[in-house]
UniProtKB/TrEMBL annotation:
ATP binds at Y115, G132, D133, R160, S236. Mg(2+) 3 binds at D31, D84, D234. This is Thiamine-monophosphate kinase. Pathway: Cofactor biosynthesis; thiamine diphosphate biosynthesis; thiamine diphosphate from thiamine phosphate: step 1/1. Residues 29-149 form the PurM-like N-terminal domain. Keywords: ATP-binding, Kinase, Magnesium, Metal-binding, Nucleotide-binding, Thiamine biosynthesis, Transferase. It is an enzyme of class 2 (transferase). Belongs to the thiamine-monophosphate kinase family. It comes from Cyanobium gracile UHCC 0281. Catalyzes the ATP-dependent phosphorylation of thiamine-monophosphate (TMP) to form thiamine-pyrophosphate (TPP), the active form of vitamin B1. Mg(2+) 1 binds at T54, D55, D133.
Length: 340
């Protein structure tokens, strides 16, 4: 056996950094890959660029039969990929391919329902199922490659490393509701919740929606005198992780305002509310760093959007700190790990 650290010891971030050594410099730096070459669109109106993303959803890692049915699995698998396209600046999806791995005793009904959920979400955003592959294996997984496009004249790319000191940090919606939904489905100890609250939380967990609408609003709200420069990513790994990611990629520190956290109102009575808002994950909102005038215009135009902090030059406390002098923002000890 080769010596060296295991994947569990490395963690996802360090693993991706090391894998990036096999690709062109900077290729692994964003939510998806932006192809370098320009292509002509079918009408010959000018250039466009393709955006390509791959994501894998694995049984007993990303989903469980105890918390969602096959239709939800397909929907979430598509949503995770389309969210990354939106995080790169795409306004819709071209399509996707699916690699299916499943044990031989998997019922056809499970596969049929998973693809139905996947194509239901995909069709709502202009895309089609392009093909894929299938294989037997010990556990079910869907490996999806999604394709989007950036058309000239409709904004530009959103890159993680494009933030600058002075930018406002903006998020497009509330956070923590998906984590509450997971807690309800797992029957975790919770205060009594109204049935409507439980239903909203479960829906947020099982049926997230990619924020292509936020990309539309981003373009529509840009003041004419401000050039296109947007840093951003999605918050699938958590709000705090997204803000930290932008700060690290841009050589900045993100200062978060505690009283501006986009806490889902359903969480307000919970002791874990702040942790779930910051680190719960799977909310699939966009976290953006923008010039302040543009940020204010976006907040005014897109309901649910708010400024949660700003970017500054690197600070000794690290990439993510409280703006009130409260020090570094660090994750709770027990968080999701891909290779645990």
């Amino acid at each position: 056996m080769p010596e060296g650290p295991t994947l569990a010891e490395l963690g996802e971030t360090e693993l991706i950094r090391r894998l990036g050594a096999f690709a062109p410099r900077g290729q692994f730096g964003d939510d998806a890959a932006l192809l370098a070459q320009d292509l002509l669109d079918p009408a010959g109106r000018g250039g466009l660029q393709l955006v390509v993303n791959t994501d894998v959803i694995v049984e007993d890692v990303h989903f469980s039969a105890a918390t969602m049915g096959a239709t939800d699995v397909g929907w979430r698998a598509a949503a995770a990929n389309l969210s990354d396209l939106a995080a790169m600046g795409c306004r819709d999806a071209v399509g996707l391919t699916v690699g299916l791995v499943a044990p031989g005793d998997t019922p056809w009904a499970w596969v049929e329902e998973a693809y139905a959920g996947l194509t239901q979400l995909l069709a709502a955003h202009g895309g089609v199922l392009l093909g894929g592959d299938c294989s037997g294996g010990r556990q079910r997984l869907l490996a999806i490659t999604a394709i989007g496009r950036l058309e000239r004249g409709h904004g530009g790319p959103i890159r993680r490393g494009d933030a600058q000191p002075g930018d406002q940090l903006v998020c497009t919606g509330a956070h923590g509701l998906s984590r509450l939904g997971l807690a309800v489905l797992r029957d975790e100890a919770l205060p009594a919740l109204a049935p409507a609250v439980q239903a909203r939380a479960i829906g947020a967990h099982r049926r997230p929606v990619p924020r292509f609408d936020a990309v539309e609003a981003l373009g529509a709200s840009r003041p004419e005198e401000i050039p296109w420069r947007v840093a951003g990513c999605d918050s699938s790994d958590g709000l705090a992780a997204a803000a930290s990611c932008l700060a690290l990629a841009s050589g900045c520190t993100a200062l978060i305002e505690r009283n501006a956290l986009p806490l889902a109102p359903e969480l307000e009575a919970l002791a874990a509310a702040e942790d779930w808002c910051l680190w719960g994950g799977e909310d699939f909102e966009l976290v953006l760093a923008l010039e302040p005038t543009w940020a204010a215009a976006l907040v005014e135009q897109l309901p649910g959007t708010r400024c949660i902090g700003h970017m500054e030059s690197p600070q000794p406390e690290g990439p993510l700190i409280w703006s009130d002098g409260g020090g570094a923002i660090t994750p709770p000890s027990a968080g999701f790990q891909h290779f645990s």
